[in-house]
Amino acid sequence: MNRSWLYVIWGGIIEVVWVSGLKHAATPIEWIITVLAIGASFYLIIQAARRLPVGTVYAVFTGLGTAGTVAAEMLVFGEPFNWVKVLLTAVLLAGVVGLKLVTDSGARERGNA
């Protein structure tokens, strides 16, 4: 895994922080952390998109953010567990992983990996 994919993964993880912050921030410090997380997340995604296909970067970024936010809401913020939501999130992640695999193999075939 190269540095660009690490940027995407970290950007997705930080996305969970700022999305949760948009819902749960109540103090000025929490809002500052939320704004800083937005900036950090988008910086990482922009850096990754300079070296990887932007469509794939965005799909992986939002997929990780969505799955992470669903998990955080259930595990950290006490949202009730819902099997259908977990199943649909797993389907989303399977599509994101498949997209990454197809993109990586296409880049190798062209000699761009």
UniProtKB/TrEMBL annotation:
Keywords: Cell membrane, Membrane, Transmembrane, Transmembrane helix
Gene3D superfamilies (UniProt xref): 1.10.3730.20
Ranges that cross the membrane: 5-22, 28-46, 58-77, 83-102
Localization terms from the record: Cell membrane
Predominant place of localization: membrane
Membrane topology summary: Multi-pass membrane protein
Family: Belongs to the drug/metabolite transporter (DMT) superfamily. Small multidrug resistance (SMR) (TC 2.A.7.1) family.
Protein name stated in the entry: DMT family transporter
Annotated organism of origin: Paenibacillus medicaginis
